[in-house]
Specification:
245 residues, two-stranded parallel sheet, alpha+beta, Gyrase A, domain 2, single chain, 4-stranded antiparallel β-sheet
Length: 245
């Protein structure tokens, strides 16, 4: 038996993406003691609790010379709520561990993404170097209305299938990629820098990137949390042109 679902379940719309830092073992000092084992061996244990400020020069050196492994000893876990189309891009980064909610085992909530009024709608340029510009009021109203109508119909069909006894894993096939899903994402600082180098557009980047706006919203929140946990490492990353070591 499937869980009962009210056929009049209210469909909700959002234009945001939620990123919550769940836990972290991440500090600039992690980079320092991991790097020092190369030359100090067991004496590197003495620097585990050292003042990270004393290692600022070492961190900059490691970043500049792209000695990446010392950055792998700082780990963060995030809880993220984002539409499915964002997750499909996110999971292309095989440098993270994921556990996502399952439409096979639970009835999916009727929460869908619609672009906010500040979302640029018109694409210009060539593949790999797109530029997005403001749409007209008419384009925004069309997009908003079409998406709301489409997902409302789709979720209604999903509910009818569940109420008829169709398995969740089959009924979910009717749902669009704008439906929200949630997952835990765990990655180390080196992996996160790789993600940020590709999923944030920044004029100071050595290698320009042109991410879809919605995944950039995830990257912005990751970077905000990471820069607070590891300010020296973050500063070195920025100074090095946002190139992942």
């Amino acid at each position: 038996m499937v869980d009962p679902v009210a056929p009049t379940a209210e469909v909700k719309f959002r234009s945001d993406i939620t990123v919550e830092l769940v836990k972290a073992t991440a500090a600039d000092s992690d980079v320092a003691f991991a790097a020092r084992v190369s030359t100090a061996g067991e004496r590197s244990l003495d620097s585990v609790d050292a003042d990270p400020a004393s290692a600022a020069g070492l961190i900059r050196y490691l970043m500049r010379e792209r000695h990446g492994s010392p950055f792998e000893h700082s780990v963060m876990t995030f809880y993220v709520q984002a539409p499915i189309f964002v997750w499909r891009e996110h999971m292309r980064h095989r440098v993270a561990s994921y556990n996502e909610e399952s439409g096979r085992y639970r009835v999916l909530d009727p929460v869908f993404y619609v672009p906010g009024v500040d979302r640029r709608l018109v694409q210009q340029g060539k593949p790999g170097a797109y530029e997005f510009v403001e749409g007209t009021r008419e384009q925004y109203e069309l997009t908003n209305a079409a998406m709301r109508e489409s997902v409302t119909q789709a979720y209604g069909a999903y509910v009818r299938m569940l109420d008829a006894g169709v398995a969740r894993e089959v009924a979910r096939m009717v749902l669009p990629v704008s439906i929200y899903s949630s997952a835990y994402v765990t990655m180390n600082a080196r992996a996160l820098m790789n993600f940020l180098s590709l999923r944030r557009k920044d004029d100071d980047s050595t290698f320009p990137s042109y991410p879809q706006r919605e995944i950039e919203m995830v990257a912005e929140r990751y970077e905000e949390e990471w820069s607070r946990l590891m300010p020296l490492t973050h500063a070195a990353f920025v100074a090095a042109g946002r190139v992942s070591p």
